Amino acid sequence: MSLGRTRAVTLEGVRGRVVEVEADIGSGLPKMVLVGLPDTSLNESKDRCRAAVINSGETWPNRRVTVALSPASLPKSGSQYDLAIALAVLAAAGAVPAEPIRDAVLLGELALDGRLRAVPGVLPATLAAAQAGCRRVMVPEVNATEAGVVDGISVVAVRSLAHAVALLRGEEPPDDPPVEPLATTENLSWQGEDRWSGLDFADVRGQPAARRCVEVAAAGGHHLFLEGPPGAGKTMLAERLPGLLPDLEPEASLEVSAVHSIAGVLPADAPLVTRPPFLDPHHTASIAAIVGGGSRIIRPGAMSLAHRGVLFLDEAPEFACHVLEALRQPLERGSICIGRAERSATFPAHFVLVLAANPCPCGLDFGKDARCECTQAAKRRYKDRVSGPVRDRIDIYRKVEPVRRHEVRDELGGVEGTSVVASRVAAARARQQQRYSGTPWRVNGEVPGPALRATWPVHATGAAWLEEHLAAGHISARGADRALRLAWTVADLRGDDRPMLDHVKIAYALRLSEPLPAAWPTDLPLAAEVA
Length: 531
Known about the structure:
This protein is of the alpha/beta class. It has 3 domains: about 170 residues, Ribosomal Protein S5, domain 2; about 200 residues, Rossmann fold, CATH 3.40.50; about 80 residues, no CATH class. The strands form 6 sheets. A 5-stranded parallel beta sheet has the order 11-14-17-10-18. It has a 4-stranded mixed beta sheet with strand order 1-2-4-3.
């Protein structure tokens, strides 16, 4: 037989598409031709595959070898096609049985000695294979746990090309050494879950209003802007927000893990991300690092890696303006589309955005005895770096005042810790999950304003009160919609079935950094107390 067929998967964002790999051995001068719009890294697989086959003790055909990747009109990139190409050539030469690999999906990069190296994106590729009806996938051993997360598909783990050939022939596999994974828990511990496991909400001294804002943001998935002088606790509050969030649901866990798999940061011993991720990029990060990008291989950025978690931009005005403006689309749609000349990719980006900023460039413009020497023009330029359209997409805005001396000295015995606040957040999210069952939304922060007003309206008195402030120009139409979402979250934290006037007024205060009631959240005051 001079024709062999295998299958691989190409990825467009987090979506995969099965690619058929055909190898034909024909007459002509010895040469290998690869067709089907391969990029440079894929075109180099000709040399990798030939060396791997020879160094694995097999014979490379001394004839013209043509390998076609179809659909031919779809651009293809990456090195994950190596195993599929090598086995297709061996099947065409009759060196391995063709039937067992005809309908299997083969993934992996070949080293020159035949070892099978790990590749990124195995989880979404396996998902695509299962959705296409494939029932077997052969992957590098270090990626096997990741592929095994997908139900309904058999995973064959191999260490080398010789290992794969032996399995297909029914022979005893060679004792090849294990291959190192792309990422390990040890290497990523500084940015993984362990980094935040020891942080407790009770560590934050003072700041009762800011703590309540963080709780509401966690309960309803609302974006948060903290503005205050250095040392007031903005970063401490933001870093403790992920601890208030419940574990990811199975579907969300699979979504997050797929994005991390494409980025190549999914540890081999932890194939599923179970906790909401927390990303805090430095303010010098490029737009490609935040948004994602790449010329041929499009990789997710911090926005997508923070999917179903928290994206914290500390010193937000210090970020490049075009980076901050890139937040607009994901804040509205929950996804981000990256387009290039030859291809585009869409990544999920449902995250809680937390911005932190100083009141002015020097950070000393606060209190009665302000020592700030910044000019008004400098202050205005500093604030304008976070544009009005971006600010209007933030649900909660809170000015964080400096901590008083007695609050620094006093013990924290009466301050609620993470476990207490997280239990309230979990109860509020359970109410939202029940309310939005059967809809594409999970939390209040995702529900569009028209859907809220039509299906889940607040009490008429609260709606009329908010309408008056909208007519007076105190709040924008988008701001009014976000205040309605906040009102629902406040009601969920209290356990009420529907937002009333006092809930709407507290939501308005959360959005505009006005004083909040002292009792929270189980004993909300009358409307007059927050007027």
